[in-house]
Amino acid sequence: LKGGLPSIMYLCRTGDDLDMLAALSTLRGLAASAEARRPIVEEGVFSVLSLAMKTSSLKCKREVAAILVLLSLNEENKFDIVHSDEMKEFVTLIEMEDVQCVNQMSR
Fold it and tell me: CA-to-CA distance for 77 and 75, rounded, in angstroms?
């Protein structure tokens, strides 16, 4: 897990929207595993999610919402999410008019 996370995050930072979507989808898949949730946060995923929030891609924003929901299933991660510098950006997912994003974030 540790060896692959930097590569996935690099793709999010340097690729186009399609590359970012693929990398975010991979992160979502990894975040579904309880054992992977804490290492993903420790690797610095919030900066990548914040970058994804700045794209015009609705699909990327939906992936961010799904990833945050999965990561928040870990108690330590809940604290880190709420106290992250990116929290204000994550809250905008709830304010979006996209039903799928709002549904994800209201879980």
Answer: 5
∠ Cα 78 13 98 (to 5°): 60
Do residues 61 and 98 lie in contact, with contact meaning Cβ atoms separated by under 8 Å? yes
The structure tokens 């610095």 sit at 44
AA letter at 12: C
Q: How far apart, in whole angstroms, are the C-alpha atoms of residue 63 and residue 25? A: 6
Quote the crossing angle between the two packed helices 45-53 and 58-71, to the nearest 10°.
150
Tell me which residue of 22, 91, 10 sits closest to 63, measured CA to CA. Answer: 22
The one-character DSSP state at 98 is: -
All residues at 6 or more sequence positions from 11 whose CB lies less than 8 Å from its CB, including other chains? 19, 20, 22, 23
pLDDT (tens, 9 = 90+) of the chain, 107 residues, equals: 567 899 999 998 998 889 999 999 999 999 999 999 999 999 999 999 999 989 888 899 999 999 999 999 999 999 999 999 888 888 887 777 766 766 666 66
